[in-house]
Design goal:
Elements lengths: L6 H13 L2 H8 L3 H15 L4 E3 L4 E3 L1 H28 L4 E7 L7 H12 L3 E7 L2 H9 L5 E4 L8 E9 L1 E6 L19 E5 L5 H13 L5 E6 L2 H9 L5 E4 L10 E6 L6 E8 L7 H8 L3
Helix pairs in contact: 1-2, 1-4, 2-3, 5-9
Amino acid sequence: MNYQIELRHFIYFLAVAEELHYRKAAEKLFISQPGLSTQIKQMEEILGTQLFVRDKKKVSLTPAGEFLKKEVEFILNHLEQTKKQVKLIGDGQLGEVRIGFLGSAMQNVVPNLLLGLKEKYPTVHTTLEELSNRAQINAILADRLDLGFVRLSRVPKGLDVKPVFEDTFSLVLPAAHPLDEKNFKNINQVANEDFILFSQDYSPMYYDTVLSICEDSGFVPNVSHKSVHAQTIFKLVENKLGIAIVPTTLQHGFQMKVKFIEMKNIKQRAVLSMVWKTDNRNPALQKCMDLLMKL
């Protein structure tokens, strides 16, 4: 009998691939376990390859199954987003743009973009999600985001990246620290202090840039704490557990007992870039990018 791959095959396959357990996958799908097994076997016959390795103790994906899992996740996610876009466009809207961002982008770039959209393209819907650089890249590649705001100079093949904002760096000190804007000369004055940085996994480019700022002054910083949240970093500084170096715009919106000294005379800059998938056909994405180029 000749069968054809249908959408249900993908849905059944993904359930088993995620659970790696036929009974749990069947319960999730509200179908019988024998019925699910039959559908997976049929799919393997159509594709002419084995997708799962089964024994009495466990179920695991074959290399072909691992590849197919990633592709099916993309296909189903893209299909769901397409359905949403069709509904919005059918209702007279321009569509939805899913935006990922680092926390520092919320200081100016993202709010300005949202205000610009509201004024010029009020029928563009947006969703926002704060994510690390790596998580944004993975989400864009998997078609879970349309646009990201990252601190990266290079991105994987298939993505485009363009700087949208350049910021200076500022030293963050406890309010009672003897250094201030009048007597601060260079970062070497705090070479013996403990440093609190954004996690390297959260933003590798930021982490490396901060290290280069210190190395240019002849020392390697002692990093005592790391975080992915500016508020946590500032709280640690406030409690005299170390000092920090952050993009200058991050000083806005926090009421803590810390002070900022802008380091205007160093060559390093905190560059925020937008990143998107080259072949993204979302009609509303271009509206966002056009606005960003004018900010």
